[in-house]
């Protein structure tokens, strides 16, 4: 798919005092948007054409990011937004370029993960606020679908019964109706920036998956071996209480990912390939013998 038209890129750049020859594609491109750097200080995101959901995600981001920054969350400031997008045929926004780089090897360290927890605590603690485009995302009960997986040959019937029983035990640790809070929705390493010298977290980017959801869902986007570090910043001293709620989502998502199609090796997200999440859970328990992580 072709990217934004060069003339339109140049026009937006000039409007912000950036010469056209200082416009370049960002090293990492988003699934939902074409991303260009405007000089050293600005970032342009243009929703990919052809899918109304991608345009809606960018419009949502334009609403959620200012709200998050008012709460004290480290998100890049938006300096221009066009929700109609006549210039590119899709909505676009311009943000100040946040300091930092992608975590090396997509592996944030313990300090970055703890700061992520503190940032999420600020976000989740805010009173529920209606925000345009932000919908409720109530996690469904995974247990009825396990029987269907067994019937389809993905699990044996005895293993399906055991798994359902384990999910019953984990569910007993969660509220029957979890409170819904504003969540970022995808706090994977690809959406974090860190200081290249210290590894400290500098920003949370790409807010297009934001929703009102159970806060435990937020941690299912973090590798299991890193959850304790995030919780150490989010709810110090309460890590053990949160783990069963978070594990419920990890287990359910891992099992239902198995029957889906493969992803190429170039997809580097920690849970991209079908077996990754299940094996990350195994890695967590093999390495640490239970709830804990190497980052400390």
From TrEMBL:
The keyword Transferase applies. PANTHER family: AMINOGLYCOSIDE PHOSPHOTRANSFERASE DOMAIN-CONTAINING PROTEIN, AMINOGLYCOSIDE PHOSPHOTRANSFERASE-RELATED-RELATED. InterPro entries: AGP_Transferase (IPR051678), Aminoglycoside_PTrfase (IPR002575), Kinase-like_dom_sf (IPR011009). It comes from the Bacteria. GO terms for molecular function: transferase activity. The keyword Aminoacyl-tRNA synthetase does not apply. SUPFAM superfamilies: Protein kinase-like (PK-like). Residues 37-223 form the Aminoglycoside phosphotransferase domain. Keywords: Transferase. Its EC number is 2.7.1.-. It comes from Streptomyces millisiae. It is an enzyme of class 2 (transferase). This is Aminoglycoside phosphotransferase family protein. It holds the Pfam family APH.
């Amino acid at each position: 798919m072709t990217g934004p038209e060069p003339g339109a890129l140049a026009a937006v750049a000039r409007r912000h005092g950036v010469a056209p020859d200082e416009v370049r594609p960002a090293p990492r491109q988003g699934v939902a948007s074409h991303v260009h750097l405007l000089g050293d200080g600005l970032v342009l995101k243009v929703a990919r054409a052809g899918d109304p959901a991608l345009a809606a995600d960018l419009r949502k981001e334009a609403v959620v990011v200012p709200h998050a920054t008012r709460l004290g969350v480290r998100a890049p400031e938006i300096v221009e937004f066009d929700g109609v997008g006549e210039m590119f045929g899709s909505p676009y926004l311009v943000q100040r370029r946040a300091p930092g780089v992608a975590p090396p090897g997509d592996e944030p360290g313990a300090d970055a993960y703890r700061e992520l927890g503190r940032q999420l605590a600020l976000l989740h603690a805010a009173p529920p606020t209606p925000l345009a485009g932000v919908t409720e995302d109530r996690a469904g009960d995974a247990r009825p679908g396990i029987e269907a997986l067994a019937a389809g040959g993905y699990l044996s019937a005895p293993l399906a019964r055991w798994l359902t029983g384990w999910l019953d035990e984990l569910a007993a640790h969660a509220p029957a109706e979890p409170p819904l809070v504003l969540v970022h929705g995808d706090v994977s390493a690809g959406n974090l920036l860190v200081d290249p010298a210290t590894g400290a977290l500098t920003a949370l980017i790409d807010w297009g998956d934001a929703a009102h959801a159970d806060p435990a869902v937020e941690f299912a986007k973090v590798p299991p071996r890193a959850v304790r570090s995030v919780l150490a910043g989010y709810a110090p001293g309460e890590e053990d209480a949160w783990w069963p709620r978070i594990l419920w989502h990890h287990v359910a998502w891992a099992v239902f990912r198995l029957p889906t199609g493969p992803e190429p090796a170039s997809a580097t997200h920690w849970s991209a390939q079908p077996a990754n999440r299940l094996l990350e859970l195994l890695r967590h328990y093999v390495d640490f013998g239970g709830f804990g992580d190497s980052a400390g």
